[in-house]
Design goal:
Strands 1, 2, 3, 4, 5, 6, 7, 8 and 9 form a nine-stranded mixed sheet that branches. The chain has twelve helices and nine strands. It is elongated, with a radius of gyration of 23 Å. The structure holds zinc ion. Zinc ion binds next to helix 7. The site of zinc ion has 6 residues, from helix 7.
Length: 396
C-alpha cells in the first residue's frame, strides 16, 4: 500500500469547503463537488460510476407538511369528526405524494470499486459530500425535533375522542389548550425551513470525503484481500436520500459485507463509534463492526467511546434498514451540555451526548476549524480497519 498522506486529505477539504464552498444537494456547488470527487477517483485508477436520482428538497417537504397540519388543525373546528380525521391523515401522508406532485432536484452518488478475485469480505467506505442549510435557530430546530411527534399524537387522540362522541364543549376546551403548542411547533417548522444560507461544510462532511478519497488512493496502489467500494453520497442532509437510493439498487450478501460511514472527522480529538440513532424509532449499529472498529482505534492510539446520536441521522441507517451490517466513525470535542446527557441517561440512553463542535450546520464550518492531526488519526483507524482480522481472517 502507498503511504497515507494527511496533507493530501487536507487539500480535498480546502477544495470542497473553501474553493467550491456550500454544496447543497441539487445545486451547482454539489455538482462541482461530484465532478471533483469523480476526477480524483479516476486519477487513482478507478472507474467511478455516477448514480443519479431525483429527490424533493427537505425544506419543501417541511413547509408543505407544516402548512397542511396547520390547515388540518384549524378546519377540524368546523368539519365533521370523520372528515377531520381524513384531512389529518392526508396532511401526515402528503410527503409520500410529493415526488409525484412537485419538481425534483437531481442528486448524484459517486461509486468506485476496487476489484478483487472472490473476496471473502466486502467493505464499503462511504461519506456524504453535500452540506446542510444553516440552522436559522438551532434551539428552535431541536425543540421542533423533540416536540413534533408528541403534539401530532395529541392531535390524533383529540380527533379520535371526538369520533368516540366526547361532548362538544369538553372537546373544544382540549382543542383550545392544545392549539398554542400545536401551532408553535408548526410555526417552528416553517421558521426552521426558512433559512437561505448553506454551510461550507468543512468538518461536516468535507472531512469524511477527504479521508475517504485519501484511503481510496492508498488502497488503489496495493493488492486487496477484500472487496472495496468507496461511495461519496449526495443528499444526506436531505434525509439520507443518496444512501437510501444506493441500497435500493445494490445487492450485497449481509454475511460478507460491512459498511463504514465517515462523518465529521476533523474537529475534536475524541474518536466515537456511533452506537445507534433515534429517540423513538431506534436504529442500533452492528455491534461486531463496532467492536472491530474500536480495536482499530486503539491500535491507532485512540481511546474510542460509544455515542448514541439521539437527534442525528447518518448514512449507515439506510444500510441497517436494508439488513446490512453498518456503522459510523466520527470525531468530536468535549460537550458542555450536561443536562441533556443526564436526561438521556434517565430514559435509558447512557451513551447519548450532545455535539461539542459548535460550528456544525453554520457558516463557520470552515477548513480553519479542521485539524490536520485529527484527519491523520482517523486515517490510521480506517486503514487499520481495512487490514483488520475482522475483514481479513487470515491476516495476523
Ligand atoms: Zn454529516
Amino acid at each position: 500500500m502507498a503511504e497515507f498522506e494527511p496533507r493530501r486529505a487536507f487539500e480535498h477539504i480546502d477544495k470542497l469547503a473553501y474553493e467550491i464552498g456550500p454544496r447543497l444537494a441539487g445545486t451547482t456547488g454539489a455538482k462541482q463537488a461530484a465532478d471533483y470527487i469523480q476526477k480524483q477517483l479516476e486519477s487513482y485508477g478507478y472507474k467511478p460510476v455516477v448514480q443519479e436520482f431525483g429527490f424533493v428538497p427537505r425544506v419543501v417537504k417541511t413547509q408543505i407538511r407544516a402548512i397542511s397540519l396547520i390547515a388540518a388543525f384549524v378546519v377540524s373546528l368546523f368539519l365533521p369528526a370523520l372528515v377531520s380525521l381524513a384531512v389529518f391523515l392526508l396532511a401526515i401522508l402528503i410527503g409520500y405524494a410529493l415526488p409525484y406532485a412537485v419538481p425534483k432536484r437531481l442528486g448524484k452518488n459517486i461509486i468506485a470499486t476496487a476489484t478483487s478475485k472472490e473476496p471473502k469480505m466486502h467493505l464499503l467506505v462511504g461519506a456524504h459530500y453535500d452540506s446542510a442549510r444553516c440552522a436559522v435557530r438551532p434551539r428552535l430546530s431541536k425543540f421542533v425535533k423533540l416536540t413534533f411527534l408528541p403534539v401530532t399524537l395529541a392531535f390524533a387522540v383529540l380527533l379520535l375522542l371526538r369520533l368516540a362522541g366526547v361532548p362538544s364543549l369538553a372537546w373544544l376546551i382540549v382543542w383550545v389548550c392544545l392549539a398554542p403548542f400545536f401551532l408553535a411547533v408548526c410555526a417552528g417548522m416553517l421558521i426552521s425551513a426558512s433559512g437561505k444560507r448553506v454551510s461550507p461544510g468543512a468538518n461536516d462532511n468535507a472531512s469524511g470525503v477527504a479521508l475517504m478519497l485519501e484511503v481510496a488512493r492508498v488502497a488503489a496502489a496495493g493488492p486487496s484481500e477484500i472487496g472495496l467500494t468507496f461511495v461519496a453520497f449526495d443528499a444526506e442532509e436531505q434525509g439520507l436520500v443518496g444512501s437510501r437510493e444506493f441500497v435500493k439498487k445494490q445487492k450485497f450478501d449481509p454475511e460478507k459485507f460491512a459498511m463504514l460511514n465517515l462523518d465529521t472527522l476533523g474537529a475534536g480529538r475524541q474518536a466515537y463509534v456511533i452506537e445507534g440513532n433515534g429517540l423513538i424509532q431506534k436504529h442500533k449499529t452492528t455491534q461486531i463492526i463496532n467492536e472491530a472498529l474500536a480495536r482499530c482505534c486503539e491500535r491507532a492510539g485512540l481511546k474510542p467511546k460509544l455515542w448514541w446520536a439521539a437527534l442525528a441521522g447518518h448514512d449507515h441507517i439506510s444500510f441497517l434498514r436494508a439488513k446490512l451490517p453498518a456503522t459510523t466513525l466520527t470525531m468530536d470535542a468535549p460537550s458542555k451540555d450536561d443536562f441533556s446527557v443526564a436526561l438521556a441517561k434517565k430514559i435509558g440512553l447512557p451513551n447519548a451526548r450532545t455535539r461539542g463542535y459548535r460550528n456544525l450546520h453554520t457558516m463557520d464550518d470552515i477548513p480553519d476549524k479542521v485539524e490536520l492531526a485529527n484527519i491523520e488519526r482517523a486515517g490510521h483507524v480506517v486503514l487499520e480497519f481495512i487490514k483488520s482480522s475482522f475483514l481479513c481472517p487470515a491476516s495476523p
